[in-house]
Design brief:
It contains six helices and twelve strands. With 285 residues, the chain is an alpha+beta fold. It comes from Pseudomonas fluorescens.
């Protein structure tokens, strides 16, 4: 798929990669969920009242766009009928024709859901044109006759609970086979790198990075000299913490690889067989 076509179909898929994507805890995106469902309910009510004459309103900047949220509509044959976002260029065209082969079947399955009056939801990974990266996206949609009305939001930040779970997973692998685990981290193996979550590992004795799931240039460098984006000596603080405890956490500012912005990062650390293993989550304060 060309880059242009990738941009064109932003936000289209109703593809549920629920098994691959780790859902956020119930309150992590609660405000976004409420906004999305409110916008969807508004659009559904408008469509029920006006029928297809509402489609033009959905494609305009106005009542059916709320910040980064917008309504888009496809029919059950897979043709885009309306969009208040980047996919407006696909109105009148079959969506399936611009999807990768492995998404087509799942898309068809999603749009074939019955008209049961129920709001369905799905999660998948898709290109975010604002950040220029693939991010998790959660979509809510409802079918009315042969129309599927949808709205979704991106989920660029994983939760602290997800960071802790990944830390425990990687720490266990380091304990059983450190050499193989470090190789996997440095290869950005998908099982050890999840959305904005990644691990870094430091040799406690040499105080140097031996693995990093996002910035390989740090491998072999002096961990003690590491500073946050606002100058906090985080390397020294983590070493001091790990000299006294087997586990701990620290908060500092760092660049979120998903958003490209400096954000507050809460990093959890653990000593494992002479290594310091760390995974952190991002938040905006």
């Amino acid at each position: 798929m060309s880059l242009y076509r990738t941009f064109a179909v932003l936000g289209l898929c109703l593809v549920a990669f629920v098994a691959a994507a780790q859902p956020a805890p119930p309150d992590a995106y609660d405000a976004d969920t409420r906004r999305a469902n409110a916008l969807l309910a508004k659009a559904v009510a408008a469509y029920k009242a006006k029928g297809d004459s509402a489609l033009a309103e959905f494609s305009r900047q106005g009542a059916y766009v709320d910040g980064e949220l917008y309504i888009y509509v496809v029919d059950t044959s897979g043709v885009m009928l309306a969009s208040g976002g980047p996919s407006v260029s696909l109105v009148g065209k079959p969506v399936v024709s611009v999807l990768d082969d492995d998404l087509k079947a799942a898309f068809q399955q999603a749009i074939s859901r019955p008209d049961d009056g129920v709001v369905h939801s799905a999660e998948y990974r898709w290109w975010n044109w604002q950040h220029g990266k693939v991010e998790r996206k959660r979509v809510f949609y409802q079918r009315i006759k042969d129309r599927v009305i949808s709205v979704g939001y991106y989920m660029p930040r994983s939760s602290p609970e997800q960071a802790q779970a990944l830390l425990q997973q990687i720490s266990g692998q380091v304990a059983s086979d450190a050499k193989a685990t470090l190789v996997l981290i440095n290869k950005h193996d998908k099982t050890l790198t999840q959305d904005d979550l990644y691990a870094f590992v430091v040799d406690h004795k040499t105080q140097r990075f031996v693995a990093h799931g996002f910035t390989p240039r740090l491998i072999g460098t002096d961990f003690k000299s590491l500073r946050s984006t606002d100058g906090k000596p985080i390397g020294e603080e983590i070493l001091k913490l790990m000299n006294a405890h087997e586990t701990g956490e620290i908060t500092y500012q760092w660049r979120n690889p998903m958003t490209g912005q400096n954000e507050y990062k809460r990093t959890f650390v653990q000593r494992v067989n002479g290594y310091i293993v760390a995974v952190g989550s991002y938040a905006i304060k």
